[in-house]
Amino acid sequence: MRAIPLSRYLIFFSIAAVGFGADLATKNWIFAQLGGPTPHHANYWWIWKGVFGFQTSLNEGALFGIGQGQVFLFALLSCVALVALLAWLFVAGAARDLLLTVALGCVSAGILGNLYDRLGIPGLTWQYANALHEVGEPVHAVRDWIVVMIGPWQWPNFNIADSLLVCGAVLLAWHAFRSGGCVPADDSERPTQ
To answer: Which of 6, 11, 19, 35 is such that its CA lies 20 to 30 A from the CA of 143?
Structure first.
């Protein structure tokens, strides 16, 4: 088996580190500017009024808020995914492929950014009581802040980590399509018996 070039390690870890850092920096900054979410008042900072802007929110679920309250399950799944991804890249050798290296660097950055929040590392506490929490309890939720409106409909808030996960998934799909992973083999290419 061919060795994985050192450049692939540098590319992967650079993308993962820069993406993770950008996610944390933007979350910290916007939450410092707008404060945490409150149940009775939404703090918006519009870039394009009624279309695109910033609004802080906390998501204890996964994509689109599915699985609210299952924070530790999602944290565990994130850890498993990260280990599997690293094994695929550097043990199984997928890092020899540049596009896979870039895609999985993006996915890793997204996983790390949201995992950081789910583990409660930012040190936030709930500022209001709700069905699941009392005032002062530690927050184990992903900090989301980008808001997009399509007419009267609001897309669920998201963050840089979510964007990196989507970019990585798109690159993985493109890789599968480009490499023929989604296209059946030609009869002329099948081995004869």
So the answer is: 11
191 located within any domain:
no
- 162 in catalytic set: yes
- Position of tokens 């609004």? 55
Would you give the DSSP letter of residue 184? P
Answer whether residue 172 is part of any domain: yes
How many domains does the chain fold into? 1
> Structural domain of residue 166, as residue ranges?
6-179
Say which of 23, 97, 117, 162 is annotated catalytic: 162
Dihedral Cα 45, 41, 61, 163, nearest 10 deg: -10
193 inside domain: no
* Catalytic pick among 97, 144, 186, 187: 144
**For the segment 20-63, what is each residue's pLDDT rounded down to a tens digit?**
999 999 999 999 999 888 877 778 899 999 899 999 999 887 77
Clarify whether 187 is annotated catalytic.
no
